[in-house]
Amino acid sequence: MMNESIYDQNQELQRKLDQLLKQARANEKKQELYETFGFEIIGASTPKQLRDLLLSQIVSRFQLLDVVLCLIDHHKDTERLFFDRDEEVRLQLENKLQILDTLKDAEIIQSLVNRPLLGVDALKKYPWMIANLKAKNQIRSAAFLPLLRSDRVIGALLMLSHDPHRYQEGVGTLFLQKLSAMTAVAVENCLNQQRLKEISYQDVLTQAYNRRYFDLRFKDEIARCVRWDDDLICMFLDVDYFKKINDTYGHQTGDLVLRRMVSLIKEQVRSCDIVARYGGEEFVVALPSTTLQAAHEIAERLRLAICSTPMSFLNKQFRVSVSIGMASLRGLLTAQQHDVDFICSTLLDSADKALYEAKEGGRNQVAVYVSRIL
Fold first, then answer.
1. pLDDT tens by residue, 160-190
2. Between the CA of residue 85 and those of 49, 233, 265, 283, what are the distances in Å?
3. Which domains are seen in the chain, by residue range?
4. Backbone phi and psi for residue 172, each to the nearest 5 degrees, phi listed first
């Protein structure tokens, strides 16, 4: 009997040891999977690569039902940088990639905890993260992973499963914390790389975009508007008698005028609009998804803001004015004409002609190009 008892005990110990070894091997594989994926996301060099890894590949690799990434827009540029001007992708991912505004979403941001939250508790605490997902009724458990950089929450990753036992408090937390940390690094690196890229596209003096960037972005926006049958307004602005300003007050004052011009333009347009210095004292603004009437109102407000804003030189004040010419994509486009390069050059040329009309008409006014059908 004693031998049988010892045998049974040994068998039980062997069974437990086998389970521990099996669990250890599973943990090793899981750790390897998490670390490999973590290094891949850190190595992502573009927003597109990072979006693909975090919002698509993570689902198949970790056998998830779905995933949601939310990012806090601390610098007011996250949406623009992370979507890299791709409006179609933004619409496709709007339920899986959520951008939080620091003012409008302050209460939501305040609710983001700085530690992983696993199981149904994550779903109960953050129902807004899954509210618009198609598969939300199949979700049974979740892992909420805060994205932390320098002890500040920059966003969160929500991993979703149909298995109610997949995520439980205290189980696999170390792996998830590592993934959380590496995701935070990857997001911050990606955004900073995009910011550096944008700096190369900025005019050093005015901080508006430069002509090179405008030409690239303008073509993208026109292609999108043609595809979606949307309008786009191109607006040229030229500082009136700028040479006289430089001759009278000096080039430093002229530079001040140009910087102030850009500041006033940006106050009147949206963040999605493109403001660029096209050359010298001439600026160009592209207003996607804007009607000609709305653009004309913006131009008039801008013209009035500029001519009513006093400039200073050696305690003496003076005023400047601008002439503005604009043209509408819809006013130029025909059903047969979809060549983007031709449309770009024609729209720019048309806005430039309207600017010439404004200057010939006495300056300090807005002129609209009256098109001839292409």
1. 999 998 898 776 678 888 899 999 999 999 9
2. 15, 17, 20, 21
3. 2-199 (3.30.450.40), 211-368 (3.30.70.270)
4. 70, 15
pLDDT per position as a tens digit, 290-344: 999 999 999 999 999 999 989 887 778 899 999 999 999 988 865 456 688 899 9
Residue closest to 38 by CA, chosen among 157, 126, 127: 157
Q: Which of 310, 296, 44, 291 is nearest to 189 (CA)?
A: 44
Give CA–CA dist 35/156, Å, rounded: 19
pLDDT at 1: 53
Is the CB of residue 202 less than 8 Å from the CB of residue 208?
yes
Active-site annotation holds for 12 = no
Using CA atoms, how far residue 368 sits from 18, 113, 169, 324, 350, in Å, is: 81, 53, 64, 9, 9
Q: Distances in Å between the alpha carbon of 291 and those of 262, 294, 328?
A: 22, 5, 8
Nearest to 125 by CA among 137, 111, 114, 115: 111
d(CA 240, CA 292) in angstroms, rounded, equals: 23
Residue among 274, 272, 273, 245 nearest 258 (CA): 245
Exactly one of 4, 281, 300, 360 is catalytic; name it: 281
User: How do residues 233-246 score in pLDDT, each as one tens digit?
Assistant: 999 999 999 999 99
For residue 89, what are its two tokens? 């992708």
Amino acid symbol at 299: A
Distance, in Å, from the CA atom of 373 to the CA atom of 20, rounded to the nearest integer, reads: 78
283 sits in the region (left: phi over 0; alpha: psi -120 to 50; else beta) called: beta
Distance of CA 227 to the CA centre of its chain: 21
Alpha-carbon gap, residue 125 to 128, rounded angstroms? 9
Give residues with Cβ within 8 angstroms of 373, minimum separation 6. 334
Q: For residue 138, what is the DSSP state?
A: G
